[in-house]
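Researcher: Here's the sequence for the chain we discussed earlier.
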Amino acid sequence: MFTDLLIILACSLLVIALFRRLRLPPVLGYLCVGLLVGPAALDLISSAQDLPHLAELGVVFLLFSLGLEFSLPRMLAMRSRVFGLGSGQVLLCGAALSGGLWLAGLAPVIAALLGLGLALSSTAIVGKELVSLGEVFSEHGQNAMGVLLFQDLVAVLLLTLVPVAAGQGDTPWYWALPLTLGKTLVLFFGLLLASRWLLPKLFREVAQAHSAELFVMLALVIVLLTAWLTHLLGLSMALGAFLAGMLLGESHYRHQIEADIRPFRDILLGLFFVSIGMLIDLRLFAEHGWTILGATLILLALKGGLVTLLARLRGDDGETAWRTGLALAQAGEFFFALVALMRQQSLLEAPLAGVLLASAFCSMALTPLLLRIVPWLNERPRSSARHESRLEEIAERNAGLMNHVLICGYGRVGQSISRFLQREGQPYVALDDDPVRVEEAGAGESHVHFGDSRRHDLLEAVGIARARLLVVAVNKADTALSIVAQARRLCPELPILVRTRDDSHLEELQHAGANEVVPEVLESSLMLASHALVMLGIPEWRVHQRLDEVRRNRYRLLHGFYHGAQASLLDAQGRPRRLLHAVKLVEDAHACGLCPTELQLEELGLEVQAVRRDGHDLPLEPAPQLREGDTVLLSGPLQAIEAGEARLLSGA
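Model: Thanks. This is the structure I predict for it:
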């Protein structure tokens, strides 16, 4: 086993490095490693009997980390996707594929089992790619994850039906199905009780010990213990891991847990893809190449088309529908387990099983490429126009702005300045290159754009020529220098105010054209905001009045900020920061039809900063009645924000 692992990891290191250089998906690289080291090619792996069990843990860790993102309130809000779209996809695709296999000459029972097995998609590949592409929370990403969760439950039910179909099962199917559902409910409520009463105390004790080793160990024990308990119940380990992660997703430790298990997840998931590649016999492609190609294309087209149709009937727009279909078009890893079990029960002949497995493998191998290339090809005829249209869209949205402030960098300092500008009624536009921060801010604000502030075309699109002031609030000194130099070339007379962490680049920035350079040590955000207001011509007495007011209120105006992908959630003393978080009310959200005061969010330590509807702030007095599509902007500590989001979405 040691030698096998060494060979796999060494080959993976070389192949994945090459694939990253070629900008190809890592998943495809792992599958190729499996093909190369497997018995059908170089035969470097003699007997890796324990590899599938080890590799399956990769899927367990992946589903656990996805569960951390899809907390219980979010899943309750997604129930129409899980049970509506999920059940429709399994039934429709299963019926179509079963009918096709029956027409091809298979027995009805065998065709039904194989058709339902092919109807299920690859949780590992789709989940991994959606995470890599940052599309987990897109509309098509949530559609795909909802359907995949339903498919995991169906996979367990199918495995219980194979012995019954072979006439060897001890339990009839009409007992096997409710028994499996009952076990799932027992597991769910057991994990729910543990997540409410036991796990918070464990994490609190470990956190107080300030030991990273203990925290990692506890996270690993929870994942592995959940998988073991699920396996004992005869259920899918991946489904149990997702349920555990989903319930822990309401915990304020979820970010730390996800960061701790990520290295284990990625390595074990790579082993899983390698093990899938090792199952394929390359000689099949020489003997039945055209048959495998035809079966692969039929599978992708049929499943993708039917899922697209279902998504459109559900009410999704065209792009969301076809991208959902594209994500779910392939066969899944469960199909390999199903075919192996059917071979053991003598329900399937070896030649047919080999062709089916090769076709399923090809559909899985093509998926990472399709998820990346097809959307790009769809945009290709207008790729250059897309870039221009995005700039034109930004330019159009800001065409009416005159004498506004342009903020480059929308971190904590940039957001602090924007709030002072809002209070004074001064228009502003912000640019930032952190997609998470822009997405968070964009949920509640329409004047924050994603992009590299060093690009002259982007600066022109946000109206730098009509701006009254440029504020550079980025973290990196070299980036700030480039922005200042670019802005000075475009607008020689524009006043430029720069924030730096210290004064080490003071002379360089002044030489590049900055009018004022304010190091953070000079009272950071407040000092920078005061310079901005004075440079805009606001009377100094009013500026001092505002600053005194902020200090009297203990900087309440500056409380909370939109955290980005790399932002720390703790301050220098290890205390939780006060954050801003925009919660968009989806269909069936608990808060719809209620007023913010009725939700008693103040009890959780939260402040409702704003309620936005169709891009406009609603007056908070009297309290507005919330409805679907509203965005509620919450301010508070991370734990309180998570609890507030749960109350808004599910009433928990």
